[in-house]
Amino acid sequence: FTEEKLGQAEKTELDAHLENLLSKAECTKHWTEKIMKQTEVLLQPNPNARIEEFVYEKLDRKAPSRTNNQEVLGQYMIDAGNEFGPGTAYGNALIKCGETQKRIGMADRELIQTSAINFLTPLRNFIEGDYKTIAKEKKLLHNKRLDLDAAKTRLKKAKMAEAKAIQLNSTQPEGDNFMVNLSYMLNLLHVKWLKSEQELRITQSEFDRQAEITRLLLEGISSTHAHHLRCLNDFVEAQMTYYAQCYQYMLDLQKQLGSFPSAFVSNNNQSSATSMSNASVSSSTAVTTSLLPSTSNTVITPTVSDLKESSGSRKARVLYDYDAANSSELSLLADEVITVYSIVGMDSDWLMGERGNQKGKVPITYLELLN
């Protein structure tokens, strides 16, 4: 090995197919480790929790159950709702949100468990099992190649020494003692040459056998890829199930909170109701809140559809301040009353608003339509 590194010995090269298989195995191991570690980070962002799970796994003991962030948040919301009173609008809303957060936490726990069994475990088994076997046989192949190269070198040296002795025999003067010694030396060199040749045949045979064993193991990498592909499909399906559950939970929560798209629902002047309404309409669909009972004498029955069908105008009270984003919009001040009407082709989330001689688009979620 040292002589190879110094360029003083020949090196037996592996065939191109075997080299490609070794490269493919190394590449598979490299990216499998990266994907596995990053998936663990995705499923468990807390590094301390990952270390604890690793220690319990090495000790062959079950890690203690731990509440996740969604479950903790959900419990805080439920406790706060009970503190404020389940009979109040805010307390009731907190309890509903808390229960939903806990359900999301349970779905997250199921995602982690399913992903660990169907995705992470097969990847870890490859790294800690199959690839370790490949690495062991690869090391044996390397040692067999070094033995083969050493045998080739010894045979080469034996042939050179014998050739030099024959040359010396042809140039030295005759003499009984000298000829006897030279004959003995030639016989000794010939025996050494035959021994080196036999050793070369043995090491060549062992190298070829080890190369075949290594090749058979490396060709199993294609099967490993196919298995990992199935595991990847299982992981994607687990994620799809998780996100579908979360979406359904939030959709149910939205319905429980009384939020409906493109509808003007009764709203009082409390800042808590305003904040809740603003949070519920952050999506592209305009929604308003009906959690709190109306304390005003105005009953809001008209909707945007009514306004568009009538092709007329109505008065609307501004729920909270709004700064116009551009010249086509109208800035609003909380509690002021403006005139609104619809224009054909306008986005369903907007109306035209007028205040004196000022005119511009206004978002419907900032308005309370008056009778």
TrEMBL record:
**Which PROSITE patterns does its entry note?**
BAR, SH3
Q: Does the keyword Transmembrane helix apply?
A: no
The Gene Ontology biological process annotation of the record reads: apoptotic process; membrane organization
Q: Domain of life of the organism in this record? A: Eukaryota
Cellular localization per UniProt = Cytoplasm; Golgi apparatus membrane; Mitochondrion outer membrane
Question: Which keywords has UniProt assigned to this entry?
Answer: Apoptosis, Coiled coil, Cytoplasm, Golgi apparatus, Membrane, Mitochondrion, Mitochondrion outer membrane, SH3 domain
Q: What are the SH3 domain coordinates in residue numbering?
A: 311-371
Topology in the lipid bilayer is annotated as:
Peripheral membrane protein
Which CDD domains does the annotation name?
Answer: SH3_Endophilin_B1
One cellular component GO annotation, for this chain's record? Golgi membrane
Record keyword Cell division present: no
Q: Which Gene3D superfamilies match?
A: Arfaptin homology (AH) domain/BAR domain (1.20.1270.60), SH3 Domains (2.30.30.40)
Q: What is its main location?
A: cytoplasm
| Domain BAR: residue ranges | 3-266
Q: One Pfam match, by short name? A: SH3_9
SMART domains (alphabetical): BAR, SH3
Name the family.
Belongs to the endophilin family.
Write the protein's name.
Endophilin-B1
